[in-house]
Amino acid sequence: MPQLLIRGIKPEDVCEISKPLVEELAEICECETDNFMLECLHTTSIFDGKVVETFPFIEVVWFERGQAVRDQFAEAVTKHVRALDIPEVEVAFRVFREDSYYINGVCCL
Amino acid sequence: MPQLLIRGIKPEDVCEISKPLVEELAEICECETDNFMLECLHTTSIFDGKVVETFPFIEVVWFERGQAVRDQFAEAVTKHVRALDIPEVEVAFRVFREDSYYINGVCCL
Amino acid sequence: MPQLLIRGIKPEDVCEISKPLVEELAEICECETDNFMLECLHTTSIFDGKVVETFPFIEVVWFERGQAVRDQFAEAVTKHVRALDIPEVEVAFRVFREDSYYINGVCCL
């Protein structure tokens, strides 16, 4: 269920790292690899009056797992993105609430 | 104002269910149908090294309405999506804060 | 770092206002103009069974700066958008947590 909402990195680049990245994240989270969603959002960025490349940014949306797991997760994501010769990337986490998440209509609470 | 940010379901499929869905949601929320925004986000999903279909996922962003309304809302969304022969869908809710929402520059607080 | 995630306003229109808007926001936030990300999300909106224009909506994602700064920020955004002959716009703020934000793998806490 952790979702990685990716901006500023091309889908073909994400394809390249997806397998080793997700394997490492699954180990960190102690869950199956098919729980992860890697999703590139289509966006157009603007700076100083013109269209520019989007800054590489990944929002991770998941249930709270605490600071230690979060640190490892961010480190793994950053490492794999940098392996693409992308020098800078920012990663932010946002939490779903269990009482506000429904799988096929059934609340996760 | 409830916004349904939809991923993994085609706009033409959303068109098909939008009318009965929004009518049911308006009843649940006791508000007008024109308060709702159904918006498909354009994304590209990746799994196991290749581009795949995006998993059907709807994020509802709104003001807090409590568990009972949330349960009914999620049930209605799920039911209408499944009517499209989409067997699985996940729905998550995120709340706006009234002190952080501005309509034409005026705070909703 | 404040991110403006923009829906329902065309990138070319955002280009037109981006310079004066970001200069004003940088003054309000007392930071550099290159901290800001203006990003148009590609979406398709649906109402009443058909595809419609997306309602102009801007989500600002940033670290908490308090009500006074938020009010000024929303007012500035609204003023510049309206200068494009867009009569209505809604602006909502969402906060990042410092313990959940990583720049090149390093937590902002």
Explained architecture:
Three copies of one chain form a homotrimer. Chain A has 109 residues and is an alpha/beta fold. Chain A has a single domain (3-107), classed as 2-Layer Sandwich (Macrophage Migration Inhibitory Factor), CATH 3.30.429. Helix content of chain A is 32%, strand content 32%. Chain A has two helices and eight strands. In chain A, the strands form three sheets. In chain A, strands 2-1-5-6 form a four-stranded mixed β-sheet, covered by helices on one side. A two-stranded antiparallel sheet of chain A has the order 3-4. The first copy, chain A, has a two-stranded antiparallel sheet with strand order 7-8. In chain A, helix 1 (11-29) packs antiparallel against helix 2 (67-82). The radius of gyration of chain A is 15 Å and the shape is globular. In chain A, 39% of the residues are buried. Chains in contact: A-B, A-C, B-C. Chains A and B meet through helix 1, strand 2 and strand 7 of A and strand 3, helix 2 and strand 6 of B. Chains A, B, C: It holds the Pfam family DUF1904. Chains A, B, C: This is DUF1904 family protein. Chains A, B, C: It comes from Paenibacillus albiflavus.
